[in-house]
From TrEMBL:
Residues 222-287 form the SnoaL-like domain. The keyword Transcription regulation applies. This is Sigma-70 family RNA polymerase sigma factor. Pfam families: Sigma70_r2, Sigma70_r4_2, SnoaL_2. Interacts transiently with the RNA polymerase catalytic core formed by RpoA, RpoB, RpoC and RpoZ (2 alpha, 1 beta, 1 beta' and 1 omega subunit) to form the RNA polymerase holoenzyme that can initiate transcription. Belongs to the sigma-70 factor family. ECF subfamily. InterPro entries: NTF2-like_dom_sf, RNA_pol_sigma-70-like, RNA_pol_sigma-70_dom, RNA_pol_sigma-G_actinobac, RNA_pol_sigma70_r2, RNA_pol_sigma70_r4_t2, RNA_pol_sigma_r2, RNA_pol_sigma_r3/r4-like.
Length: 340
């Protein structure tokens, strides 16, 4: 974890304030991803990294270079995220299966605007990270630690345990480095890490992604697109695992099993004039933006779908619906209307 980015690249002198902004900016994407893991929200992560940069700028004169600038920025970002969680009226972000049992009827009423929903993360934000190689003690690779199942699971950890696990097992920091970030003892860090690992192990079997051959995944996804765009319910259902799960935040209702999912979509699809799927990158998982044909023949943005697959088919798919999808569209560079 040695990093000498607090040294000016042109000399051995400490960074001047004029150089600081450029050096700090090289860490922005990695800090944003760290804040996303902490908070479960793309939009909160953007706010957190902005606050991190502001706090770093204001306190730069007191930075003495005893730690690397990267570690210093992560310390600020982690504590910003912890403060944001503490200030929430509801502490944890969730997805529908964590709230109630599976539904058997179509949704009634309106989407749940009060619950804090976990949000997806654009793959474009993961490109060109300044330090994609985690430390030697990291337990999770990048593609594991950004999956929706992992983000969902770690939101259930107490905030400080979440911070410890992310710093130690995702970034690969030593207990001593983590202790410095959290103003804690090494012993308390090790204890929190053990509790966090034990809790995480019980939460979700999908935290570790299933292995699937690239060719098989490509075939499954091609069949998935064809089934949607032809509105062929039988072909769509045949791609699902027997106990597949479908969720659609911000609606609380969710569905489990082929029969239940088939009944839901069998009642919903006839209301639409047609579908188009556009591949997008989200959480390093297969993902699509769904567009539906409007009365004027235009293709209007509908939702953002994330899938998890294994060799037996589609295990879960989560559709981020309106109005949540509307907030996500700019981050995924999605138009509200497709050209014909």
């Amino acid at each position: 974890m040695r990093d000498t980015t607090f040294i000016s690249p042109a000399s051995t002198d400490p960074l001047s304030r004029a150089d600081f902004a450029a050096v700090a900016e090289t860490h922005r994407r990695a800090l944003k991803l760290h804040c996303y893991r902490m908070l479960g929200s793309l939009h909160e992560a953007e706010d957190a990294v902005q606050e991190t940069m502001l706090r770093a700028w204001r306190s730069f004169d007191g930075f003495e270079g005893r730690a690397s600038m990267k570690n210093w920025l992560y310390r600020i970002a982690t504590n910003v995220a912890l403060s944001m969680v503490a200030s929430r009226s509801k502490r944890g972000r969730v997805i529908p299966p964590q709230l109630d049992g599976p539904s058997t009827e179509r949704p009634q009423g309106r989407p749940d605007a009060e619950t804090l929903w976990i949000e997806p993360y654009p793959d474009a934000e993961l490109e060109n990270l300044p330090d994609t190689a985690a430390g030697p003690d990291a337990r999770y690779e990048l593609h594991e630690s950004v999956r929706l199942a992992f983000i969902t699971a770690i939101q259930q950890l107490p905030p400080r345990q979440r911070a410890v696990l992310l710093l130690a097992d995702v970034l690969g920091w030593s207990a001593l480095e983590v202790a410095a970030v959290l103003d804690a003892s090494v012993g308390s860090v090790n204890s929190a890490l053990q509790r966090a690992r034990a809790k995480l192990a019980t939460l979700d079997r999908e935290v570790r992604p299933a292995q699937i051959a690239e060719e098989h995944q490509r075939t499954l996804l091609e069949r998935y697109v064809r089934a949607w765009e032809s509105a062929d319910l039988d072909r769509f259902v045949a791609l699902l695992k027997e106990e597949a799960v479908y969720a659609m935040p911000p609606w609380r209702e969710w569905y489990q099993g082929r029969d239940s999912i088939a009944a839901f979509f069998g009642g919903v699809w006839p209301a639409y004039r047609g579908f188009r799927l556009v591949p997008v990158g989200a959480n390093l998982q297969p993902a699509f933006a769904l567009y539906t044909r409007g009365a004027a023949g235009r293709w209007n943005a509908h939702s953002l779908q994330l899938l998890s697959l294994d060799n037996a088919g589609i295990a879960t798919f989560t559709a981020f619906m309106q109005p949540l999808a509307q907030r996500l569209a700019p981050a995924f560079q999605l138009p509200t209307v497709l050209e014909a």
